[in-house]
Amino acid sequence: MISRGRAGGWLKEPIDVLPKWATFHGVAFNGVKVGPLPGFEERGSTVITDQKIEGGDSEPLLVVPKDLIISRQNINLFAKSDHHLRELLDALGDLGRTTRGAVLTFLLLQATICCPETKDIGVLNPLTEYIKFLPDELLPTFWTEEEQELLAGTTLKPAVSAKLNSLLREFENLRSATESIGWCAKYWWDESSGMLTFDDWMRVDAMYRSRALEFPGAGDCMMPCIDMANHASGDATAALYETDSDGNGLLLLREGKRIDQGDEITITYGDDKGACENIFSYGFLEDGMTSAKVMFLDLDIPDDDPLRPAKIYVSTAAPGFRIFEKGDTIDWESDFIWLIVVNEEDGLDFKVRQTTDGKREIQAFWREQELDTAKLREYIEADPAWDVFRLRATVLLQDRVEVQMETLRQIEGIRQTATVRDVPFMLASRLRSLELEMLKRAASTLESQRAQLLDADAVQKYLGLTGGDEDEQVDFS
């Protein structure tokens, strides 16, 4: 593992050294500082005031010079004078050209430079030292297998599994792409002296995932010092972040806010993010959170659907549906579900055609017209059987919600063991409770929608109930 410290993680600098680093590199503080909140030291460092401040003051609370921003643009600039960084970005191909890939690669190289065992690797820059101030985040990708099992039945369980598989593929691609580079072979991959491990790749992913902000004018990036600020939503958000006309990062107190000396300056990581995403990306749930806000449940095309292979081939939609709060009610949306509920007898068809370069591809059709499956809903909304399709979708979603609820109920009352840490246990318990409550609300909403659709004229005609026994129970699955 790179730059090993006493606890086996990366070497760290005490947070009280950060002001010296920041001042030396031009970060301007105005009435604030970075450090632990008095009485809540166990939460780590945050941005706090060192005097009483009020919103509307002309000066920003923090000004971060643009050349300290960890962004793809700046990383490309660093790569012009650091041929080791340029080698890595070029070797990684498409991944190295993405913002996330560039940032993770940059962080990994800085950690390598910091390691006492490495010689003549990389070019020192102000951010080489900054990563030593960043704490290790206890995101679910760092939970033990036993702790991850607590997530069974939640939407976070498949998300964590998929993320770990993705990170492992990336790490293996990193190895295969760089093991022919001399210094990488020596310091990263050598069987006896290589330092790089999968944990290191997970660590830089966690750093970026938990600290990246979308700054106007700078895009997704890590903003030193400002990225130490904690999250609060709604009226509790104390400050805003943006860039000035020169591209410097700013932290600005919201108009009308008054913060006493020693209190915390909070920002928002995104008020609309649900409980699952908050734990996944940031490793916490906000105090007082009473709703999961949004959930994504997977869906599959039934095995007995004769069009299943073709549907899977042409689909570009996420295979599932999203449940979300809409005011005081629950609503849902999905592009994928319409591909499940329409079939050949409804007007869906697929044909194989040969392209100009001799390859074959499958083309979808709706009632003999070429179909872009991403816009399937637009086609079937205009169909006289639209309410029939909606009913099929509603029944399918009802079944899926019931399955998810049953899975969650089966693990209710699970108890903490001596090998499960407090934070994962608390977060998993709260997430199960929030998602179960939201699923109950979704089930009620779907039942109401189903009842309304059963009264629709198109459905009555389709089921042959017009003028007949409208109370007859029909298996519509």
TrEMBL record:
Domain of life: Eukaryota
Annotated ranges, domain SET: 30-270
Gene3D superfamilies noted in UniProt: set domain protein methyltransferase, domain 1 (3.90.1410.10)
CDD domains per record: SET_LSMT
GO cellular component: nucleus
MF annotations from Gene Ontology: protein-lysine N-methyltransferase activity
InterPro entries, A to Z: SET_dom, SET_dom_sf, SETD3_SETD6_MTase
This protein's name: SET domain-containing protein
Organism: Decorospora gaudefroyi
